[in-house]
């Protein structure tokens, strides 16, 4: 890798060099090859009694850094404690809870003295359930969640919608000790699976909100960070936060992004799943470092609408099957990298990927799907959630009222889409339940009918 000492300008120069050479897949694969030499094991995750507790069969916690539950029948949960000593940061990275691991999740929050949950995914993405709804469905005692197996109760105190993310405050009651504690959930709702946020600006504002709550400080337990698998979006968040802390504490000559990522991967496998996410991490770190400069002016901020947005896809198409998560740990994706968004701070770092690329930069393109729209969906990665409404570009002369109107319309459209997706998922589940309920009686009836025919034929002859 590069030298450990690297100035902010050097990081920017490195970024521009990689972008000019279209080398993000190469750099990403190089990091993956170095991680393959790590000697760490995942024996607990592969035990027969623990395998059902893993959301993905190829994303397992390392034994040396896994979180061990104390007050539970099983001490296993798919989660790792990721330490970045140079930044004085600790995070617990975990998968989105399954229906039968919700109580384990809340027990981990309680036992680790965590004061924040950073949820970077939506419950349903591309008509696929990526995380079980693990918190109360309403505010107040009447909606409280009682977890008898771990002797905890969770009550939602408040909820606030902040456009592209939401915050919720919960109170956890320990039924054994009668103690209670408040925990804040920061829910980023517009970050697609295997993708990146709409802009570095939006992400940095979310990060500042989390930091200002004190949830990442050394005087409280490590924050719980999760997406679906707990490695892609979660790893991106932790990498950017740690690098910016190091720059803030030790100056611009103190950060090597690739080396820090390798250090973090020693505690949890596969952090950052795509070259896109690695490139976005560079963007956010460069932008954040410039904002730490005393000469940076607040009026340099630009509207979120100037950044490239996730393309909207036809939701009526059946979602392609999700790829094995393990492929993202060692292979570059087949899709070309999209154009890089610009900003005042990033300046001229907008390098579009060339149409042609050498064969050693990308693996062969997979066979085309039956429909053109499905092919487009697969090219943008199988689990990529591209169902956000595409924002209309807002000229600098537009009024604040017009921007607020557009933002409200987008929020309503998004809410309608999510409602429709949940409705389709419920209808599909009801249909499967009906089929399962009819299967057994029809099978028995058909068996009696066949037996009657044989008996009748035997008696007759």
Automatic annotation (TrEMBL):
Ranges for the region named Disordered are 311-408
State where composition is biased (Low complexity).
368-381
Biased composition regions of type Polar residues, renumbered to the chain: 341-360
The alphabetized UniProt keywords are: Endoplasmic reticulum, Hydrolase, Membrane, Phosphoprotein, Protein phosphatase, Transmembrane, Transmembrane helix
Q: Residue limits of the Tyrosine specific protein phosphatases domain?
A: 201-279
Q: Which residues form the signal peptide?
A: none
Tell me the Pfam families matching this sequence.
Y_phosphatase
What positions does the domain Tyrosine-protein phosphatase occupy? 11-288
Q: Which PROSITE patterns match?
A: TYR_PHOSPHATASE_1, TYR_PHOSPHATASE_2, TYR_PHOSPHATASE_PTP
What InterPro entries does its record include? NR_tyrosine_phosphatase (IPR051985), Prot-tyrosine_phosphatase-like (IPR029021), PTP_cat (IPR000242), Ptpn1/Ptpn2 (IPR012265), Tyr_Pase_AS (IPR016130), Tyr_Pase_cat (IPR003595), Tyr_Pase_dom (IPR000387)
The residue ranges crossing the membrane are: 438-459
Q: Where in the cell is it found?
A: Endomembrane system; Endoplasmic reticulum
Major location category of this protein = membrane
Q: What is its EC number?
A: 3.1.3.48
Return the similarity comment.
Belongs to the protein-tyrosine phosphatase family. Non-receptor class 1 subfamily.
PANTHER family in UniProt: TYROSINE-PROTEIN PHOSPHATASE NON-RECEPTOR TYPE 61F
Recorded protein name is protein-tyrosine-phosphatase
**Organism whose genome encodes this protein:** Galleria mellonella
Q: Which gene encodes it?
A: LOC113516898
């Amino acid at each position: 890798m590069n030298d450990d000492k690297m100035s902010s300008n050097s990081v920017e120069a490195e970024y521009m060099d990689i972008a000019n050479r279209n080398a993000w897949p190469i750099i990403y694969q190089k990091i993956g090859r170095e991680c393959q030499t790590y000697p760490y094991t995942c024996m607990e995750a592969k035990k027969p009694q623990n395998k059902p507790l893993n959301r993905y069969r190829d994303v397992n916690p390392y034994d040396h850094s896994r979180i061990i539950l104390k007050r539970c029948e099983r001490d296993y949960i798919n989660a790792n404690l990721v330490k970045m000593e140079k930044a004085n940061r600790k995070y617990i990275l975990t998968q989105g809870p399954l229906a039968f691991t919700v109580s384990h999740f809340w027990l981990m929050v309680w036992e680790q003295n965590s004061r924040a949950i950073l949820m970077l995914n939506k419950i349903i993405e591309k008509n696929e359930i990526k995380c079980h709804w693990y918190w109360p469905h309403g505010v107040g005692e009447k909606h409280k969640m009682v977890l008898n197996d771990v002797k905890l109760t969770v009550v939602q105190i408040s909820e606030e919608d902040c456009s592209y993310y939401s915050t919720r405050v919960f109170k956890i009651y320990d039924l054994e000790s009668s103690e209670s504690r408040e925990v804040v959930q920061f829910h980023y709702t517009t970050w697609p699976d295997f993708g990146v946020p709409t802009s570095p600006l939006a992400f940095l504002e979310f990060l500042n909100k989390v930091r200002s709550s004190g949830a990442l400080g050394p005087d409280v337990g490590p924050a719980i960070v999760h997406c679906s698998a707990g490695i892609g979006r979660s790893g991106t968040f932790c990498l950017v936060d740690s690098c910016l802390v190091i720059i803030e504490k030790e100056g611009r000559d103190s950060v090597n992004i690739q080396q820090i990522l390798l250090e973090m991967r020693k505690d949890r496998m596969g952090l950052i799943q795509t070259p896109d996410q690695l490139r976005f991490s560079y963007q956010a770190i460069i932008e954040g470092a410039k904002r730490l400069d005393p000469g940076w002016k607040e009026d340099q901020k630009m509207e979120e609408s100037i950044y490239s947005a996730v393309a909207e896809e036809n939701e009526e198409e059946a979602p392609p099957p999700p790829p094995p998560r393990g492929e993202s740990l060692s292979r570059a994706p087949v899709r070309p990298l999209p154009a890089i968004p610009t900003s005042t701070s990033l300046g001229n770092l907008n390098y579009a990927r060339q149409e042609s690329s050498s064969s050693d930069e990308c693996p062969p393109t997979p066979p085309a799907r039956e429909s053109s729209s499905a092919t487009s969906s697969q090219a943008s990665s199988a689990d990529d959630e591209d169902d956000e409404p595409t924002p209309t570009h807002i000229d600098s002369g537009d009024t604040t009222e017009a921007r607020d109107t557009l933002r409200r319309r987008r929020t309503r459209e998004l809410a309608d889409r999510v409602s429709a997706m949940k409705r389709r998922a419920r209808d599909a589940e009801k249909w499967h339940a009906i089929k399962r309920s009819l299967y057994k009686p029809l099978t028995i009836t058909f068996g009696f009918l066949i037996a009657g025919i044989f008996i009748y034929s035997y008696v007759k002859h």
